[in-house]
């Protein structure tokens, strides 16, 4: 059975492991350990993308469920003469949400704690002028909680450009099911995917077709799918976070099906398939167009895989900021992933078609509306002839 | 005789173009147009395959195999998608592909949703001069300030929900084509159905020709160019040269014209293959095909998606010059027959080895 307390426990463990994009080895180890405990076969690509396999009754056409384990973060850019450290974002996020965040800095030889603060000129009191500092990564600096007052101090500690900076997740689980934290995107999705796998393993259920579960490490920078998708994979569903709760009036417990995003529309037929599965399993699924969204599914197409793609997202608020989601949404997500893995493929045959006879349709011709257009001018302006005809008829 | 062999059937081209303009095919909603093109290829007795999502790969066997030539042409068009069911019973929309809402205003549209297929029209949110006077001129041009007025009795959000309309429904703009006595064709979606008609005319010519192409000649009809992934996954492994067919922008500062073939030397993704471009210029000169070379400043095409997906192919881009691209497009039918003629000449031409040293 899919259990909320297990999703929550998995999520909190994942949130405790720093994994900004490019610094994901430890979270990969952690997930690999969980999969090994569950007895799920998996392999790692060179850079650490995990490809787990849930064997089905047929090897092809196979399907893939994708979740990314990398998160936003930052990187040391330059050390100022005063020892304050300039940083650059990892992933696409506003410096507005960086202010006040406690961070861990991973230097080559030691690990430091620090805090991201707006940059204010030395000599100016920190309580004046701070309102006029524009939100921009150039106006953010890292204060190390260490006696650092000069560039030399920082260098002596081993701080240098390129050091990874991980944000504290600071999670808070409310009794009413809400969870707030940094990096909910996409550790909550990963927790939901792991719970679905756990459920399938416990139930000793066999999917009808092979299913690959990909834990990717480059989603945040848009290159998550390099080398990850096998040729027999015909359809691919990405699990991610969508900030739709307040703006789109989406109930917190729902799962969102992205009709499309900044990369264009997702697959018409796979989306219809997911709608049907959700209806049958009584899972609340809301279709939304996510305008400023990018996903691993889109990256798979850019990387040259001819797969049908879809994005299912747990509903939440304030993505890439102080994120919030709800355990009910994660529960429903796990249920939907489980139902999807156990369902028949969207299209059962997967050889290239040599004629269009078996190819899908999108328009039911009977449903097409009929409209009236203006008649030919020449036919209408010959009023004399028409009048004559009418007269003839009367006679 | 050489010239007769290269003369495309202009009537056939014109008929295919008008028929394709009648079939909706915004990116992501291209199944019906894929069906149409497959039926046409079957009629021409050209063997073809469909990929999972409907990209068509047709192959005319050449005298030699290996180092095949692919001509890539996209079938998908720009369009829109429903993003909001509004409280006033109208629909908020976002673009599919990159284009300005300025050119969407006034467009008549069909909405393909889960329920009824509906007709409507795109209007600015302030649409009545009698009601808003000069405020209309101050309304910014943006997709957030246009909406679809459905020609159905919907007064509020609940009406829309009841009719089964969901966000994500596809919006197709009427093409509204018109061909003048001077041979100009004006329509939406000449990008890239005009290209498809030229390629079909070239294929008809090649399929009926008494001899075979020099090497395998592959026509690829892609379905996701407008969102940048058309040729990511569809080029067969033996393709050495990839020739894109697409629209060319005619505008002040551009060298493209609505007649002849406009050869693209460089677009936003960088320069095209120099040797292939030289070959096309030479073919144009040898076969008396009107042509010009241009550079496109804000432009991507399927060639970019193939290269990004890791394909090592020589690429070229042949275009039909068109006024007001991604707006109220207009080209001249002669640019399409010129294009078909150049494609046929290319198919019969010997493959040129690139010189060891450019110069």
Give the termini distance of chain B in whole angstroms: 35 Å
Report the helical percentage of chain A: 25-40%
Query: Got a strand count of chain A?
Result: 18
Helical segment count of chain B: 10
- Average predicted confidence as pLDDT of chain B: 94
**Could you give a short account of the major beta sheet of chain B?**
9 strands, mixed
Q: Into which percentage range does the β-strand content of chain B fall? A: 25-35%
Oligomer: heterodimer
Q: Output the radius of gyration of chain A.
A: 27 Å
What is the H-and-E element order of chain B? HHHEEEEEEEHHEHEEEHEEEEHEHEEH
Helix-strand topology string of chain A: HHEEEEEEEEHEEEHEEEEHEHEEHHH
End-to-end C-alpha gap of chain A: 85 Å
What does this entry look like structurally?
The complex is a heterodimer of chains A (395) and B (359). Chain A is of the alpha+beta class and 395 residues long. Chain A is 27% helix and 27% strand. Chain A contains 9 helices and 18 strands. Chain A has helices at residues 4-15, 25-38, 151-157, 184-202, 268-281, 296-302, 327-342, 377-381, 383-394, and strands at 41-44, 50-54, 58-68, 73-79, 85-90, 102-106, 111-118, 140-144, 164-167, 172-173, 178-181, 209-216, 233-243, 255-261, 264-265, 285-289, 308-317, 323-326. In chain A, strands 1, 2, 3, 10, 11, 12, 13, 14, 15, 16, 17 and 18 form a 12-stranded mixed β-sheet that branches. A 6-stranded antiparallel barrel of chain A has the order 4-5-8-7-6-9. Chain B starts with a helix and ends in an 11-residue tail after the last helix. Residues 354-359 of chain B have low confidence and may be disordered. In chain B, the strands form 3 sheets. In chain B, strands 1, 2, 3, 12, 13, 14, 15, 16 and 17 form a 9-stranded mixed β-sheet that branches. By secondary structure, chain B is α+β, with helices and mostly antiparallel strands. Chain B is built from 10 helices and 18 strands. The longest helix of chain B is centred in the middle third of the chain and has 19 residues, at 190-208. Chain A binds chain B through residues 234, 257, 259-260, 263-268, 271, 287-289, 291, 301-308, 347, 350, 352-356, 359-363, 367-369, 371, and chain B through 24, 27-32, 34-35, 38-39, 42, 47-55, 81-83, 94, 96-97, 110, 112, 116-119, 166-170, 224, 226-229, 232-234, 305, 308-311.
